[in-house]
Amino acid sequence: MTEQERLAAMTEAILFSAGEPVEISRIARTLGILERDAVFITELLQDRYAETNSALQILHLGNSVQIGTKPEFAAIIRTALETKRMQPLSSAAMEVLTIIAYNQPVSKNFVARVRGIDSSSIVNSLHDKGLLEEAGRIDVPGRPVAYRTTDVFLRSFGLHSLEDLPALEVPVQDGEFTGEISEKPEQDVTA
Q1: Rounded CA gap, 152 and 19, in Å?
Q2: b/e 57-66 (16+ beta carbons within 10 angstroms → b)
Q3: Mapping DSSP to helix (H, G, I), strand (E, B) and coil, where does residue 134 land?
Q4: Which of 31, 30, 60 shows the shortest CA–CA distance to 45?
Q5: Is 51 helix (H, G, I), strand (E, B) or coil?
Q6: How distant, in Å, are the alpha carbons of 52, 108, 124, 138, 189 from that of 162?
Q7: Topology given in CATH for the domain delimited by 3-79
Q8: Is the CB of residue 82 less than 8 Å from the CB of residue 176?
Q9: Separation CA 168–CA 146 (nearest Å)
Q10: What is the pLDDT of residue 181?
Q11: CATH 1.10.10.10 corresponds to the domain 91-190
Q12: Residue 15 phi, psi dihedral angles, 5° rounding
């Protein structure tokens, strides 16, 4: 076994055992290699999976990677594990998720101001589903919790990072934004 094959096998073992995204920097530190070498090893694993028509793939999620199955096997896996199909998100939940994804980190109050209606229960539901997580507290009176999207959000929507979000079409009339909220007032977040 070559050194490259040994590193690939160890990386595969780490990713398989973790069952969740692992930061490239953590893999590099664990294996005693440079981060760029850890990226190369994960790409080597992905190539190996592709060459052998494996059901597995390497998912790149920002600065993290995870072993997962190819999407075409989702139905058979669901059947085998007798897992109920996750209910699609309501339009209100999608709206809240969109507001948070494009403005994060933000408080429930910010979401409510944008939507014009209290959205606390929807934010809580999205948090329970693992699509949102707490991102510290906002430095304003009352120190409300700030929320941001998670790696589960990225995986669920097939994104590698937030930069992959589609560009927003901002309503502009006569060169000026026509929305009611012109700036995000809550910007100082502390952990």
Answers
A1: 12
A2: bbbbbbebbb
A3: strand
A4: 60
A5: helix
A6: 31, 20, 21, 21, 19
A7: Arc Repressor Mutant, subunit A (1.10.10)
A8: no
A9: 22
A10: 43
A11: yes
A12: -65, -40
Contact 99, 124 (CB under 8 A): no
Give me the mean pLDDT over the 108-135 stretch: 91
Cα separations in angstroms, 83 against 26, 76, 79, 116: 31, 10, 7, 36
Task: Name residue 60's beta-bridge partners.
Answer: 65
d(CA 153, CA 151): 5
Return the CA Rg of the chain: 20
Structure confidence at residue 159 as a pLDDT band (50, 70, 90): confident
Rounded to two decimals, what is the model's pTM?
A: 0.53
State which H helix or E strand residue 50 sits in.
helix 35-51
Torsional sign, CA 50, 54, 59, 63: negative
Taking alpha carbons only, the member of 96, 108, 184 closest to residue 144 is: 108
CA-wise closest residue to 108 among 96, 90, 120: 120
**3-class SS at 95?**
helix
Residue 126 contacts by C-beta under 8 Å, 6 or more apart in sequence?
Answer: 93, 96, 97, 100, 132
Burial of residue 13 (CB within 10 Å: 0-12, 13-18, 19+) is: exposed
Please answer whether residues 101 and 153 qualify as being in contact, where contact means their C-beta atoms are separated by less than 8 angstroms.
yes
Res 182 pLDDT > 60 = no
The residue with tokens 């507290």 is: 137
56: amino acid identity, one letter: L
